[in-house]
Amino acid sequence: MVLPDSVTTCLSPPVHYAICKLGFEKTDAYDINNILSGNGEVCWQAVTEHVCYLESDQSVDYIKSIRSLGPVCESVNLYFKSLTKEQFVVQYESWLHWTNCTEVFLEVFDVLQYAQATEVALGLMKLTSCLERALGDVYLLKGNDCPFLLRDLLASKQLADIFGQAVMNVLRVFIGSPHGLNLRNVLWHGFASPQEIPAKYCAMLLFLTAGLGQLLHTYLLQTQGVLVHRPSVIFISLEEFDAFPGKYLNNEILSIAEELVKLSSFVLKIMLPFWISALTAFKQNRYADSVILLLPQLEVGLRLLFTTSNKCPNRLLTAESSALYTTFDEMLAKHLDNEEVNQLPVVLEEPAMASDFLWDFLNHQEGPRIRDRLSHGEINLETFPREVANQIVGFAINILCRFSDEDMFSLKEHMVIKPLMNCASCYRSRFHPISRLKKQVLECMKSIRLWAELPTVPEEQVQKIKGLEGNAEADTLILMISEIISQLQHYVPQNCCSSDDLINSVLTERLLVELCDTHICTLYSPRPVLEVVAVLRRISAQCHQVSQQVIAGAELRYAQWVNKTLRSRQRHNYRRMLNSIKFLSSVLLLILLLITLELVSVHSVCKKNPFDYQQYLKFLKSVLQYTENLVTYTSPEKNKWDETMELTKKTLIKLRKICDRKLMLRHLAT
C-alpha cells in the first residue's frame, strides 16, 4: 500500500506546474489601476487582454493565459489586502448581491487578509460553488434547463450573450475547464493540499465575481430583466439522518478523532490540516464548513485505497485533461472500466456498510446527494443542518478508526468510540429504491389503518336504503381474500396466522413491519430487480393515493350527511362507499403484503436463477393498472363505487389463480 507519508502531492506534474508555478513565472509588478477604474469598477477590456489564443483555431491558450494573468492576480491580492473591511464593503458589497450569497464572499475577503492556507482553500471551495449557482440563475434569463456541469455552463451561448465571450474565457482560465487551472475540481475532488492553492487565485475570483455583478447590472437595465434566484435545497425528514446520532459526537470523541487523523493510514499527511480544520469547524457549529472540508478528504482517502487495491497507483494523481478523474462514482462502482471487479469493497472491513452509506448520502437520487448539492451551490450554507453533518463526521471517524494501526485496537474498543462503531455495523441503506419501497409500504399501511377511525353513519341507516339490504357481493370478495391469504400462509411467519380469522391475523401492521425489516442486500442490485422495484413502488404509491382519497371523501360525505346537505343520489352513493370500504381496506393491505413478499423474493431469485422477468413485469403491471383505475374511481370527481367493486372482483380472481400456483415470481423461476 502507498504510505500516506510518502505522498507529497496528489497533483500530476502538469497540473502541479499549472497551479503552483506557471502563474509565478512573470515577476514584473502589475499596476492595479490598469484594471480598476476611478470609481472602483473592473475594467474588463484590460482583464480580457491577458487571455491568449491559439493561432490554429483561436481557442484559448490556457498555458499562456495563466502565465499572463499571474501578475494581475497578485496585484488584485495585494490590493484587497490594502483595503479595510469597511472599504471593501462600501466598494464591492452591492456588486456581490447578484450571487444571493453576499456573506460568503465577504467572508472570503476576511480570509484573504490572513491567507491561512486551509481557510483560503475552504473559501475558494465555497466561492466557486456559490458563483456556479449564481451563474446558473443568470443562465435562466435566456435558457431553460441549466447545465449540470460547470464547464458546460461556462461554455454556454446564454452566458456569452449576457457577459460576453471574452469575459467567459477569463473565467474558464480559472474554473470549469480541465485545460485551465480547474481550481474548483482539484479542490472539491480532494487533489489539492492546502499549500498548493495560491491565495492570489482566490482573490482574483472574488474580484471577477464583483466585476460580473457590474456587467449584469448593466445588462438588466438594458433589457429591463429581473434576476430570479432558484430556491435552496432544504433537507426534509431529518429523522432519517440518524445513522450516527449526535449524542455520540461529543467533545470527547472529537478529541479522540483529532488523535486518530494523525495515526490513521487513511489520511495523507499533506492533507492533515484539512482534517484538523474540519473537526474544529464541527466543534464550532460551522457544520457546512466541516462537511465541505471532509468530503474531499473522504474521496482522496478512498482513492488511496482504490488505487492500491486495484493496482493502479498512478490514478491517485489528477488525470490530465484527456482523461477522467478517479472520483466517488468510479470508486463505488461494481466493476472497473476494464470490466474487472472493483477490489475496494474487499479492502473495506464492512464493504456493505461503507458502500451503502456512501451511495445513500452521495449518489442515490432520493438521498441528500450532499457532495453534489454543496459543490454546485444548491444548499444554504448558513442553515446547513447539524443532523446531516453528524452523518459525514460520524462516518469519517468510523473509517479513520478502521484504518488505524493494530496497536490502536484498544482505542477502537474505547467505551466512548465503540457506540459509534456499532452504529456503522448496524447501518442499512435508507435511500436505495428497495429501502424507499419499504418505507412507502409502511406509510401506506398506516394510512389504511386510519380508515377504522373514520366517522360513519349508523349501520341501520345504511341498510334501510332500497337495493342495499344485503351485502352478498362484499361477502364474496371477503371470501376470495381469505382464499388468497390461505395460499400465502407458507410465505409468512406462522405466528402471524390464525385459522379462525385469516384476514385480521395476517393483514396486520406487525407482519408488514416484520417483512419490511427483512434485510435485503441493496448494493449492486441487478437491473431486473430495479425494474421490478420501480413497478412495485408505483403500485404502492397508487394504493396510498387511494387511501388518502377514501379518507378525504369519507370525512367530507359524513359532514355533509350530518348537515343534511346531500342529495338523494349522493346519499345512495355515500352508502355504497361505506359498504365498499369495509373490504377495500383488506384488498389494499393484501396488495401491500404481496408487494413485500415479492420484494423479498425478487432479489434472491434474480441472484440464483434466471427467469423471464418481462413476463413477471407484465403481471405486476396488470396489478398496477388495477390500482391506477382505483385512483380514478375513488377520486372526488368520479366516486364510482359500483365500478370499484366490479374491478376489484376481477382482480381478486386473477390474484387467486396466481397464488394457487405459488407466488408469481417463484412460479416463473421454478
Describe this structure in words.
- This protein is mainly α and 670 residues long.
- The chain folds into 3 domains: 4-223, no CATH class; 238-425, no CATH class; 433-661, no CATH class.
- Helices cover 62% and strands 0% of the residues.
- Helix 29 (613-633) runs antiparallel to helix 30 (641-660).
- The model is unreliable at 465-470 (pLDDT under 50).
> Strand percentage, roughly?
under 5%
Count of extended strands: 0
Radius of gyration over C-alpha positions, nearest whole angstrom = 31 Å
Termini, distance in Å? 46 Å
Tertiary shape: elongated
Percent of residues in helices comes to 55-70%
Alpha-beta content class: mainly alpha
Which runs of at least 5 residues are low in confidence (pLDDT < 50)? Answer: 465-470
Organism: Sylvia borin
Domain DUF4209: 131-211
Pfam family, one: DUF4209
Protein name: EMARD protein
Write out key terms for the chains shown:
670 residues, mainly alpha, 3 domains, 31 helices, 62% helix, elongated, DUF4209, membrane
Offer a quick outline of the entry.
The chain contains 31 helices and no strands. By secondary structure, it is mostly helical.
How does the SSE layout of this entry go?
Elements: H1 13-20, H2 44-48, H3 62-82, H4 85-96, H5 102-114, H6 117-139, H7 150-154, H8 157-163, H9 165-174, H10 183-188, H11 199-223, H12 251-263, H13 272-283, H14 287-309, H15 328-331, H16 344-347, H17 351-363, H18 370-375, H19 386-402, H20 409-412, H21 418-425, H22 433-449, H23 459-463, H24 472-488, H25 502-506, H26 509-516, H27 527-562, H28 568-608, H29 613-633, H30 641-660, H31 664-669
